[in-house]
Amino acid sequence: MSANDHTTAHEEAHTGPIKTPQQLLAAVFFSFVVPVFAIIGLVYYVASANKPAAGADESAKAVAQRIQKIGAVEIRDANRPLKSGEEVYKAQCAACHATGAAGAPKFGDAGAWAARIKTGFDNLWHSALKGKGAMGAQGGGDFEDVEIGKAVVYLTAAAGGKFAEPKAPAAAASAPQAAASAAK
To answer: What is the pTM of this model?
Structure first.
């Protein structure tokens, strides 16, 4: 081996891949400029998408629910005609008493209602108003106490009970009469 071969091989082993200024410019361009433009492009791609933020769907509705008052006042017509026992039964009571769900005595089942009828109208009415067992207060409905009493009479009458329907309070009963006399 000659001395030139050893020094030439030694110099080539320690040189980098960039040997000309054009190669240096290309390396700088690809190492710095291209990644910067790639990052800018990704930022525009992510920012331009029409994606709602987490929890921002129906934002007006969500805001309204978050700032809603705890209590609410419901204004109802005080002079509305009272519902009959059958109407209240069909609207609220039939869900359980027609099928016997959650141990409710079925409509018209004299055997299931006999012991309950013996306790008296006031006890049944109180149970219907305050709730008993799986049945919530007023069976979960929103009726006047007199309407619930009429429903109790309707339910028990179908099973052989003979209770008199409760009368409407004096203020509610006199309101239609006052309106009729004012119309004359």
So the answer is: 0.52
